[in-house]
Amino acid sequence: MLQRFLDPQILAGIANLELTAKTVVEGFLSGLHRSPDYGFSQEFAEYRPYVPGDDLRYVDWNVYARAGRLYLKRFRGETNTRLTLLLDRSASMGFRGRGLRKIDYARFLAASLGYLAHQQRDAVGLIAFDDEVRDYVEPSSRHGQWLKVLHAIDRAEPGRRTDYTQPFWHFQQFLRRRGIVLVVSDFFAPARDVISTVAPLSLRGNDVILMHVLDPEEVEPVLESSRVLIDMETGEEMEVSPSYAAGPYREKMRRHLEELESLAQGAGMSYYRSLTSEPLDEALRRYLAVREGRP
Amino acid sequence: MGLLAPWFLAGLGLLALPVYLHLLRRSRPDSKQFSSLMFFEPGRQAELRRRRLDYLALLAARLALLALILLAFAQPVLRSTAVRAGAPPLRLVAVDTSASMGYRGRMEAARRKAAELLDENARLASFDTRLRLLDRAELARLEAGGSANSFGELARALRAFHEEQKRPVEVHLISDFQRSGLPGGFAELALPEGVALRLHPLAGRAEPNWAVESVRAPGRVRHGREARVQAVIAGFHTEAARKTVTLLAGGREAARKEVEVPPEGRATVEFEGMDLPYGFTQCAVRLQPGDGLAADDEFLFAIERTDPLPLAYFGDRRSETYLRNALEAAAGAAFTLGGADWQRARAVIAAGAMPAEAELAAAVRRGTGLLLVLGAADASRGRVPVTGQKITGTRYAPRSAEGFFLASRVDRTSPLIDKAGGWEGVRFYQVIAVEPGEARVLAALSDGTPLLLEQRVGEGTVLILTSPLDGVANDFPLHPAFVALVEQAARRLVEWEDSTAAMASGEILAPAAGAGARAYEVLDPRGQRALSFAESARGAAVELERTGFWRVMRGAGRDRMIAVNADRRESDLAPVPEEALRMWPAAAAATGQGGGGAPPEKPLALWILAAALAAAVVEAVLASYYLGKEAV
Asked: What pLDDT does B380 receive?
């Protein structure tokens, strides 16, 4: 029964973002039957020597008293993974078809992944952007970090038009340590531009996951009669016929998606497309799969 | 059939308004925002369609609604032509048996007067808070009770009696006509046509009287020495006097104090440090020397001495922290959480975990209380443990509104709600949706989704809180009301509440109130069963007619002792002024004459408004349907 709470339509009704994330992750874990393969067990695994920069909370002071050396307790499933969520909050993310807005879906996704990572004691951070960096929370696993990230996600509302060039140049300044970078966006830009802008993050040793969030109506629009469409980012108006929406538009969109996926894989990035009508568990699974491959 | 205000029908012209609106309705230009036009190319111009008379069903509903409202304003009535037949009058002799009739000599005088009035066709009755028809042979055994009298209730009973008899009634009231028995408005004393009233007052003036007006004492204590008793001694129409006040515990004198009672005033006496044994102790505050009205010279109460009651806990640490802190913060700290074998605990709290369900259910049927705090795991099970209600899903506070739910429907008759301030300001974000079934809903969201349910299972009480106490699903634990809720819930589960209450004679004791409890036995002050086996088994209520100590036997350490005292409204012996007494029969006669002549009219406006309401509902449904269609 918990699985059904992964349904975005139901999640859209929940006012409290933390509760949404908790519900999604609990539902997801329920589906996994808490498999230890995914690193949720907090079973003690080993000791490792302390190195400067480690969190002192995990130092075993009993061992220090006996051996005179600092050791950290490590648990199974515990890593020093850093997850940075790049959340697109451009105006086009405010589009709503018959379900929920893309920005809401993206927020649920970001909050759920953040919660999941937080549960595993991964360092979590967030960058929200449109044509500039609008919000930045540095990745950390300190106490209170989760709430900072959560509030930043909650603040993300559709802003101005997307421009990947400017904010991604800034990301390179922020992302000094390697980790997992998860880009949640609708990628309404030429595929080559998107990949050429994001690829440097991958080249610096980050595992980059592109989460492409789209509304089903954007992939397969259905118009019963001719309609005036207004571009949410530019304000441009255009009358569109049903036949165009059913034929050439879909073909163009299909080619765009294929190109984006192909270029992303070519650049060593993981690409995943998610429609706002689909449950969130596949995205969580994708994140864990990438995370498993990391040291 | 007729109309009281036919000129309102002129408003039927308003019916043209919906027709006008439906004719001139136009569709809006069809435009839509889209995320990006990067894959689109311009197409042909859309044709906008004008609509004519559209949505005929909606139009019909609107016309019907307007027409019905106008018809209701015209006040249609149904005129009846029924005629009443005459019949010989019946004499009813009603004797006041309220506590004040115990004042020296009044009851004997009442019996003598009643004997004079009772002829062959007469009926005998007694009254205090209600009218009781008696056999004539019972006149000699009539005694003053402990209840107050109420002339308003008497008038209501006489109206019902007359309605039932369907012939003229001559009522003789024999009473001291205490002023305290009069209702707030003289209209409540009105009697119907055909009831003739004869008054026989027995008291001429306000007699002086002292009374133990009230006693404040704890119902339960953990240590005998902590019992503190405060009594108020009142004088009515009295001079200043010195009185001796005695505290009795278990039939023996525990303390004695002298008190100066001012003229027509009150004085307070306090006793401390009673030496109470474990269990129930029958106590009393007695006034000495006595006066003409003995019924209010003594005030009975009961105190129970017990150890703190253990409550077993199963669940997560966060909920436990909240619950433990609330129990420790509650006044008296009468409960302890955890630490005990759950099968020996008086109640179990389960927040996400519990012992084997079959064993727990068996314990509840034997009388163990259970507080279930539902969580996501219960939602996945699909039913509530032990009580078995169906769980239909989980409700989350919608983003579209304020972002949280409030407890909009609360049952303030329950102390769980009332003493927790009606749960005002408590925000709920996640609620497990439970179908109440047989359970009583104590608090619910505005759409009826229960927040707190109460159900009897065998001899035990089960409370179900449908929102987890994990600090995320609601902010209840952060409100002071939470302490009151947890304390009251604990009391409810162990059936602590009112365990040693003092009540007034004539009040109704309903041990089953609120949860449909079964199987208990009530013993009156003489030690006799107050209920038959059948009444006990179905949890019938008991009227506490006799003053003294009543026992409610429920087993499993959940007995109650209730002290019943004479109603203190009877202590003021001031009679109704003579002018008012003269007015009552006259007013009754005037009311009776007003009812003859024109045939009765039955108004139809309410029925028409109900039909209008139905039309409004249909209109709303249709409008919403069409709006939805347009939005798509």
From this structure: 78
Q: How far is CA B606 from the centre of its chain?
A: 28
Maximum C-alpha span of chain A: 80
Question: Which pTM value belongs to this model?
Answer: 0.49
B-chain CB neighbours of A2 within 8 Å are: 376, 379-380
Dihedral of CA A198/A199/A203/A206: which sign? positive
Higher per-residue confidence, B348 vs A145: B348
Whether A219 and A251 have beta carbons less than 8 Å apart is answered as no
Q: What ipTM was estimated for this complex?
A: 0.75
Residue B377 pLDDT grade (very low, low, confident, very high; cuts 50, 70, 90): confident
At residue A146, does pLDDT exceed 70?
yes
Report pLDDT digits (tens) over B35-83: 888 888 765 434 334 344 567 788 888 888 888 888 888 777 775 544 3
Nearest-CA residue of chain A relative to B35? A92
The CA distance from B395 to the nearest CA of chain A, in Å, is 8
Cis peptide before B355 (omega within 30 of 0): no
Of residues A15, A226, A249, nearest to B396 (C-beta): A15
Residue pair A75/A118 in contact (Cβ under 8 Å)? The answer is: no
Cα B384 vs. chain centroid, distance in angstroms?
A: 28
Q: For residue B17, how many other CB atoms are within 10 A of its CB?
A: 12
Q: Is B125 left (phi over 0), alpha (psi -120 to 50) or beta?
A: beta
Cβ of B472 and A19 within 8 Å? Answer: yes
Residue of A5, A233, A240 with shortest CB distance to B40: A240
List B390's β-bridge partners, or say none.
B383
**What percent of chain B lies above the pLDDT cut of 90?**
26
Q: What is the H or E stretch that residue A46 is in?
A: strand A44-49
Could you tell me which of A99, A144, A106, A105 has the C-alpha nearest to residue A124? A144
When the pLDDT of each residue in chain B is averaged and rounded to a whole number, the result is 82
In this predicted model, what pLDDT tens digit does every residue of B491-546 receive, in sequence order? 888 876 544 467 888 787 776 543 444 567 888 998 888 888 777 777 778 888 88
Q: Which of A67-71, B49-53, B247-251 has the highest mean pLDDT?
A: B247-251
Q: Which of A127, A145, A120, A151 is nearest to A25 (CA)?
A: A120
Query: What residues of A are in contact with residue B402 (Cβ under 8 Å)?
Result: 15
Do B247 and B271 contact (CB within 8 A), yes or no? yes
Question: Which of B376, B404, B429 is opposite residue A2, by nearest beta carbon?
Answer: B376
- End-to-end alpha carbon distance in chain B: 48
Distance from CA of B432 to the nearest CA of A (A): 12
Q: How many residues does chain B have?
A: 632
> Which among A2, A11, A16 is the top mutation candidate for probing chain B, defined by the most B β-carbons within 10 Å of its own β-carbon?
A16
CA–CA separation, B312 and B459 (whole Å): 18
DSSP-based three-state secondary structure for B48? coil
